[in-house]
Amino acid sequence: MMKSVSRRSVLAGGSSLIAAPFVLPGLTSLADAKAPMLGAQRPNHYRFKFGKMEITTINDGAFYLGGPFPIFGTDQFPEDVEELAVANHLPPKRMEIGFSPVIINTGNELILFDTGNGDRRGESAGHLQAAMKIAGFTADQIDIVVLSHFHADHIGGVMAGGKLAFPNARYITGEVESNFWLHPDQEGGRTGNTHKLAMINVKPVADNTTFIKDGATIASGITSLFAPGHTPGHMAFHIESEGKRIFLGADFCNHYVMSLQNPDWHMAFDMEKEQAGQTRRKLLDMLATEKIPFTSYHMPFPAVGYVEKKDDGFVYVPASYQLNL
Ligand SMILES: [Zn+2]
User: Which residue in 28, 30, 40, 71 has a CA-CA distance of 20 to 30 Å to 54?
Assistant: First the structure.
């Protein structure tokens, strides 16, 4: 019977409702007004205290593509890669790859590690700037931008609308990486697009950049680790505060199932595949043996977890509340 009373007639005050205006109209309109669909929603950022530091992972967005094969396991049979996906509750032919820049407040500096996709690569990613605001940061607060390597999903956000996206920042990146990508040898061919973007986004800030090697101090408690293979000069970072350690791995592994369970499998975006596999295995082994948490750019958001050894490989254990205590 209630359903026969339209919202319009209730608002107009039908005579039978006037006697009990505070009850019936409310009930009727609740029953009639369906809540709107809001669209899929992802977490925007995740922040935890780490010794004297605060670490925030930021969701730059994601790409949706065919895979895991032939992105992961390029040296494997497609059906073996698909089988591993299905065994881990993932679809065999469609995948999401997310992007998670990290902001560390050391108490003295606000440091951004990698800049997301920026405004050049479609609508599903490049949300760093908007997400940072929601997370409580403004772009002009960033003191240091660290670039782990020069792939477009990491350097794309150095510029925004042709201007410096982080106007007060200085920059830190690997010497080997920079020398490789900014060199004219990389024009055209397989390296052409990344070279071109590096010339647009990174070359203009070269005078304000510190080029580092293995073991360099980024800030108190943060040191670089040369971790090549994904790119020739790819860098990862050890972070330590008040006796606690966390590892910022960038792209030493790129999928929480494929890269961990089969660290030696070739991956399309690893430029030196054997070397990338060796670096991956060595660092995963370190994380599992020393039981330290890590953040890595393409792990599922919020991109913080642990590594356990399993068979001849490893498994990813997402962080739950360990870092919140
Ligand atoms: Zn990447």
Answer: 40
44-324 falls under which CATH superfamily?
Answer: Ribonuclease Z/Hydroxyacylglutathione hydrolase-like (3.60.15.10)
Tell me how long the chain is: 325
For residue 93, the tally of other CB atoms under 10 A from its CB is: 12
Give the CA-trace dihedral at 64, 119, 167, 179, to 10 degrees.
70
Neighbouring-strand partners of residue 319 = none
CB 211 within 8 A of CB 181: no
Q: Which chain residues have CB less than 5 Å from ligand 1, an ion?
A: 151, 153, 251
Ligand 1 centre distance from Cα of residue 298 (Å): 7
Whole-angstrom Cα distance, residue 24 to residue 125? 47
Rounded distance, CA 226 to CA 98, Å?
23
How far apart are alpha carbons 222 and 232 in whole angstroms?
A: 22
In which residue are the tokens 């990344």 written?
194
Are the CB atoms for 182 and 158 separated by under 8 Å?
Answer: no
Read off the tokens for 20: 């009990």
Distance 115 CA to ligand 1 centre (A): 11
Residues of the chain with CATH 3.60.15.10: 44-324
Q: What is the pLDDT of residues 177-211, one digit of tens each?
A: 999 999 999 999 999 999 999 999 999 999 999 99
Sequential DSSP letters for 18-47 = HTSTTTHHHHHHHHH-PPPP-------EEE
